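Request:
You are asked to prepare a plain-text protein record giving the amino acid sequence and the C-alpha cells, at your earliest convenience.
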Amino acid sequence: MLIRKLFFKSRNTHSLLPVFLKPRYASTSTASEHTSPVSERETEKSPVITRLPNGVTFVRAQNISTLDPSRLVASDYILPIQWYFSVRYRRLSAILCEYGKIAARRAFPPGTSGFLYLHRPHGIHPCAATLRFRVCDRDLPPQESFARGNDLLSPRGAPWEVNLLRLFASVQTVNFREALLLDKVLSLETIEQAENLANNLAKGDRKGRSKLVFSFGQSFSISMGRRTTALRFVNLETSKLEHVVIYSDIAECTDETLSYTMRIEYDPHAKRRIVFRILQIPKELHGKTRYNEGDIMPLRRCKFPASDVADVLLRQSPSLSSFSLSSHPDQSALSSTSRSFRARLGKKREIRPGGTRLMELQ
C-alpha cells in the first residue's frame, strides 16, 4: 500500500491542487470474508496517479490535528469509511486513502473508523515510521480508545501502512513536510533524512515492492506465495539503499492472501552475519513449512550487494550498537544462542503429515 502526494496546475483555474498516488493493494482480515482472492501480479501492480475527486471534497475533508497517538483529540476521529477517505493534516497537507488498487478491493471493510497515526517501531530509526490506521471506539476518550483499539490489518496479517519514505518519495511534498514540523511528531533532522532517502528510493524502486530494512531487530511480513522477496537495506550515513533479493519461500503454499512475519537478526557466525527469525505463521495455512515459529532461517540470497550491509545495520541498531566486530568478534546480544541455531541448521528434519511445520533445513 502506497500513498504519494504530488501537485499539479489545473487547466481551468491555474491553481495548485493536490494530486495523490493510489496505494497498492492493502486490506484487512475482515475484508477476506467478502472479497475474492487476486493474483500476485494484480496485487503488485504499480500505483497510478489519481486526482482528488474535486476541490470541494478537499475543502470539506475532515481536518486532523496530529499523527501523534499521545496527543489525539476527539475531532481527529475518522468516521466510518464507505469507499475512500480524505483528510486534511493540520489544514496544510491532504491525504487520500483508498483500500486497494483492484476494483474488488478498493472499499474499506464496513464500519472501519478510528484514528490515522504515525507508528514508530521501538528501537528502530525514526525514518522507519509508518502511517497506520487504528480501528477503535468513538465513545471512549481518545487515548483510552486508541489503547483498546487494533491496527487495520490486511488479510495477510500485515498492518495496513505506508512507510514514511514512500510518503516522501514524490516530486513535491512541501506541505506534508511542513505539517509534520508543525505537528512536532518528527524532528527536522529525521524529516530531512527521510527526504534524501526518498529521492534514492524513487529512482530505484518506483513500484514500491521492496521491504525497507533499517536495523537488526526489525520485523516485516512476507507473502506465503512468493519464492523470493526484495529488500532494500537503508544506509542512513550515505542515504543509499542496497538492493537485496532473498529466497523467502518457507511453505508449500500458493495462497497469496497469506503472509508470515519474520525479523532480521544478527549472528556473528552466520553467512553475511545475517539471519531471519520466523515470528508468526498464519493459522489459516494448511500444509507443511520448513520452519516452526521461533526458528532461525539462514540467509539464502538470490542477489546480494558486495558491500558489507551487516556493519551498516549494526551501527543503526541501538540495541546492538555497543558491540563492535573488530573489538568483540565473539560477542553479540545474540551470540549465546547463535551457536545453538547453527547446530540445529545441520540436523535433518522429517516431513510429517497433518500440517506439522517440519522439513529439512537447507
